[in-house]
Amino acid sequence: MSSQDTPGVLAPPPLIFATALVLGWLLDRVVPLPLLPAAIAPWAGGVLVIVALAIAAGAIREMRRARTAVDPYTPSSALVRTGPFARSRNPIYVALFLLSLGLSLLVNALWCGALLLPAVIVLRRFVIAREEAYLERRFGDEYRRYRASTRRWF
């Protein structure tokens, strides 16, 4: 395994979501549109943030137990199939989406929520597709069996 043995993702996934949130926040400054009624949005956002943090913490814990990299720019040394990875091939990305949606609700900005769709499209095309191809090259049949038995999302 060499330092060149990586998926070659376009950008760090947190940056993709952060870009969507910042652009949405800026648009909201120009044309404010609420995502939900003001009495509901912060509560819903808070719940989503908590759920997202729990999923991410569980996924990171499982990756560390397996002694494999969380950073997509570092080679993978193990295929993790336990914890949140038993239900989703991308639990950290699910958590990033839920966190971003929760933050969109906390600031109650429809633009932030709406720009999550393009962020997910960019994530799918330029991160997940590359990671899946990399994992198939790296782990072969083991990854193909995992992919066949576990959903990409929840």
Notable traits:
mainly alpha; about 150 residues; 6 helices
What does it look like?
Helix content is about 65%, strand content about 0%. It has about 150 residues and is an all-alpha fold. It has one domain (about 15-30, about 35-150). The protein is elongated and about 50 Å long. The model has no long low-confidence stretch (mean pLDDT about 95).
Q: Please, how many domains? A: 1
Helix content: 55-70%
Shape: elongated
Poorly predicted ranges: none
Largest β sheet strand count, sense and barrel closure? none
The Cα radius of gyration reads 17 Å
| Topology as a string of helices (H) and strands (E) | HHHHHH
- Count of DSSP-assigned helices: 6
Q: Count all strands and give the number.
A: 0
Brief summary:
The protein is mostly helical.
What is the strand and helix layout of this fold?
Elements: H1 13-30, H2 41-65, H3 91-106, H4 110-114, H5 116-139, H6 141-149
Helix pairs in contact: 1-3, 1-5, 2-3, 5-6
